[in-house]
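DM from R.C. (forwarded with permission)

"hey, sorry to bug you on a friday — could you get me a structure for this? deadline for the figure draft is monday and I only need the backbone to look sensible"
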Amino acid sequence: MCTALSDAATGRLLRQEGSCAERVTPASTFKIALSLMGYDSGYLTDEHLPALPFHEGYLDYIPSWKATTDPTTWIRNSVVWYSQQLTEWLGEERFRHYVEAFHYGNADVSGDPAKHDGLTHSWLSSSLKISPLEQLQFLYRLVTRQLPVSARAYELTSRITAVGELPGGWEVHGKSGNGARVNADGTVDHTRQIGWFVGWASKGERVFAFARCIQDDEPQPESVTKRAREGMLRDLPGLLESQ
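My reply, with the result:
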C-alpha cells in the first residue's frame, strides 16, 4: 500500500509510506483529468448537463449505470460509459493532446495492443499508467492552475469532485478508482485488484494533495476501492493536522 501527501501549493512531498513510484492503471481516478477536458472543450457545460440516457450496449455491470447520467452522477457513480462518450466526442487527436499536455503519468493512450481501443479503454487496466507520486504532481498542477484549461474547467471540476468536510474543517475533493493488476505478459489479472483514492484537501489558505493506492496480491473479501477510500478519509484528519 502507498500513502502519499504533498503541499499542493508548492508541490513539496511531505509524506511517503510504502511503494509510491510504481506506475499502475489510474482507473476511475482519471475522471478528474477527464472532467477538466470535458469542461474545457465544452462537452460538459455545468454540474447537470449534458444528461445522457443509458443505451443497451453500454457497460452496465453496476446497476446505477443503467440510468440517465449527468456530470455529477458520472463522478458519484463512476460511470464508465459516460467517460467513453466524452472521449469519443473529443476524438483521438484532441484526447491525446490533453493527456500529453497534462503530463499525466506515462501519457500512453494507445490502448491494448492491436485492439485500437485507446480512446475508450486506455485508462482501464491498459496502456495509460500513473504512480501515486505522479498523481500528486498532477494534482499540484490542478490546484495551482498550471494545466492548459479554462478557469471554468477548474471551477466545475472542483464542484463535481467535492467529497465533503472532514473533522477539523477540511474540505475534501477526490475520486476513487478500481482496476486490475497486469501480468508480465500483458494479460489482466482480475483476481488481483488495485484500489485508489486521490484528491486534495483545503482549509483556509492551506491545501494538501493526497494519494492512496492499494495493490492486492490475492482476492480479498472487501472491495479494495472501499478500503482505499474509507481508509484514506479516516486517516486524513490526523495526517493533515500533523503538518
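R.C.: lifesaver. The chain has a mean pLDDT of 95.
me: no worries. The first helix runs from residue 31 to 41.
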